[in-house]
Amino acid sequence: MKTIAINSIKGGTGKSTLSVLFVKALIGAGYKCLVIDADASNNSLSFYLDDSVGLDITQGRTIFDLFLGAKVQDCIIRIQDNLNLIRGDVRLNEFRSTDSLKRLKRALQGLGYDFCIIDTSPTYDNIIGNVLTASDVLLVPVQQDIFSYQALKYQFEKLADLELDDLDIHVIFNQFEKPLNDNQETYRNQITNMFLKNEVFRPFINSNHISRSSVYRKYINKRNYRLSSKAETQNGYEEVKNLIQSILGISIKEAI
Q1: Over the range 14-27, which residues count as b (16 or more CB within 10 Å of their CB) and which as e?
Q2: Residue 250 has what DSSP assignment?
Q3: 163: left (phi over 0), alpha (psi -120 to 50) or beta
Q4: For 52-80, how does the pLDDT look when each residue is reduced to its tens digit (9 = 90+)?
Q5: Could you report the per-residue pLDDT of 142-198, keeping only the tens digit for each?
Q6: How far apart (Å, rounded) are the C-alpha atoms in residues 95 and 81?
Q7: What is the CATH number of domain 2-177+204-248?
Q8: Could you tell me which of 57, 84, 93, 202 has the fewest CB atoms within 10 Å of its CB?
Q9: Pairing mode, if any, of strands 2-6 and 115-120?
Q10: Any idea where the domains of the chain sit in the sequence?
Q11: What does the alpha-carbon distance between residue 183 and residue 194 come to, in Å, rounded to a whole number?
Q12: Are 40 and 66 within 8 A, CB to CB?
């Protein structure tokens, strides 16, 4: 199983959007996925919960119980045949200062999924430390603004402290907007170039991006909406397909 964390210290960069794009594409391609909501302040993956799941899940175990030592199989909600969810819990805040960064890694060992995707809160604490320690891949969505740049600098300082040498890091421009012209003095060009010229995280910036588009909103909010190489969804399909190919080495050939 490959574990993918999605984290940015700045809020509003589209972490949950990116996680849903990845999950929908992977399960659409036939992969078995476990999704974990590690956001203590917001159940960001409530997208997956609908009438078919039922409200009785509010009585079930959560990521909080997983941190207490419960088994994964006792905490999951079955969403569909190849998708299970462990939902978030505000009580997870109790572990922000835990002295162990390996609780989650131990809990996830030996599972029979192809991928585990973990969405997180826009912060840095020991919950995030647990998520990163348990992960093989880190996706960091950023936007073309100065606050994302400052947050990314801080995030890389914290990553250096963890010394996770095997963590595969990808910085991804999310909700990307192409500059209206090639004038390097425009604000958007200047900000984008700040990212690209930074020697610390420049090697980790993925050459693919996710554009700002109403197609993605439809894809996330409409369960039967598919991305394919046809009509209005072609650009979105190509962006998601190419991004997943560049990160996971998976070739998605059909609609997702």
Answers
A1: bbbbbbbbbbbbbb
A2: -
A3: left
A4: 555 555 567 899 999 999 999 999 988 88
A5: 998 899 999 999 999 999 988 898 999 999 999 877 765 666 567 778 888 899 999
A6: 31
A7: 3.40.50.300
A8: 202
A9: parallel
A10: 2-177+204-248
A11: 15
A12: no
- And the tokens for 150? 């400052």
* CB distance 244 to 252 below 8 Å: yes
Q: Which two tokens stand for residue 203?
A: 């090697």
Residue 116 in tokens: 């585990």
Question: From CA 161, how far away is CA 159, in angstroms rounded?
Answer: 5
The model's pTM is 0.91
Residue bearing tokens 């991006």: 209
Q: Looking at residue 4, what DSSP letter applies? A: E
Tokens representing residue 3 in the block: 């574990």
How far is the CA of 161 from the CAs of 93, 131, 133, in angstroms? 22, 15, 12
Q: Is 207 exposed, middle or buried (0-12, 13-18, 19+ CB in 10 A)?
A: exposed
Gap between the Cα atoms of 61 and 126, Å rounded: 21
* Residue whose tokens read 């079955």: 78
The torsion angles phi and psi of 173, rounded to 5 degrees, stand at -70, 115
> What would the DSSP string read from start to end of 177-199?
---SS--TTSHHHHHHHHHHH-T
CB 151 within 8 A of CB 183: no
